[in-house]
UniProtKB/TrEMBL annotation:
ThuA-like domain sequence ranges: 50-260
Name of the protein in its database record: ThuA domain-containing protein
One Pfam family per UniProt: ThuA
Species name: Nocardia rhamnosiphila
Highest taxon above the source species: Bacteria
């Protein structure tokens, strides 16, 4: 790669839709790095870009979306649209950088192969993954915890302090630890008594864990992996505006884009 290629702006497709978020501060955060040229698409237009192959023209695709779940409830998956699977296969075959943020872990719930790309899955209802039965995942909002860098020599964590505090939403969910390389962990206790049932919340019972339990979960909240020719990063932090403005979170986001795009 020439120095001109390394210094050129990174073309980034930023995908949202299917989950509420603090729109203006989130988009402002992504516009704050002059080295990134951001194109923002929401579903269903973003789905079309994956299906028709136009998403593959970008250096990196950032997913902050949650398609594939019926928002009207009761909790159930929606049919995987034709062409989505082949669209992702094209992205990874062509080596497009892929960065998944926060609730994107729950996307495309009817397609297990999506979890294999990302490195884990958030379950809205009991489901099977790699032949293992899982209960619905747990969530805990507005929680202060300590984030710890466990791969300080990795490009994605370059310039990030060894630890920092963040108030954010946490997930108790399936992480495919044998298929990922951890770069970020949380000091929180990932046990079911500290979380609430997602399935009950989706069916009108928020902040409820009655009759629900979940195996002790992984405290890995950021990881990297390779899928086909694509570098992949997942970063769980980033639920609301307080996280978007955190300089350490922004550094992780922008490093992830550049690393997956082959620019660092």
């Amino acid at each position: 790669m020439s120095s001109a290629d390394r210094n050129a702006r990174v073309e980034v497709l930023l995908i949202t839709g299917g989950h509420a978020f603090d729109r203006e501060p989130f988009l402002a955060a992504w516009q704050s790095d002059p080295g990134l040229h951001i194109t923002h698409l929401e579903h269903p237009a973003a789905t079309d870009a994956i299906v028709d192959g136009s998403a593959a023209r970008y250096d990196c695709v950032v997913f902050y979306d949650m398609p594939g779940v019926d928002p009207q409830g009761p909790a159930r998956p929606t049919r995987l649209p034709d062409g989505v699977q082949s669209g992702f296969e094209r992205l990874t075959r062509e080596g497009v950088g892929l960065v998944f943020l926060h609730h994107a872990l729950a996307s495309w719930a009817a397609w297990e192969g999506y979890a294999e790309i990302v490195g884990g899955r958030y379950h809205f209802w009991p489901a099977s993954l790699r032949g293992q039965d899982w209960p619905d995942s747990g969530y805990l909002q507005e929680t202060e915890h300590e984030l710890r860098v466990v791969a300080g020599d990795h490009p994605v964590t370059k310039g990030v302090g060894p630890s920092f505090a963040l108030t954010d939403e946490l997930y108790l969910c399936a992480v495919l630890e044998d298929s990922v390389t951890p770069i970020l962990t949380s000091g929180f206790d990932y046990t079911s008594e500290n979380f609430y049932s997602t399935f009950r919340a989706m069916n009108g019972h928020r902040l409820d864990r009655r009759g629900w339990s979940h195996p002790p979960g992984s405290n890995v909240v950021g990881w990297v992996r390779q899928h086909e020719r694509s570098r992949v990063v997942y970063l769980q932090p980033g639920d609301r505006a307080a996280a978007y403005g955190n300089p350490e979170i922004r550094r992780l986001w922008f490093n992830a884009v550049r690393w997956t795009a082959g620019r660092m």
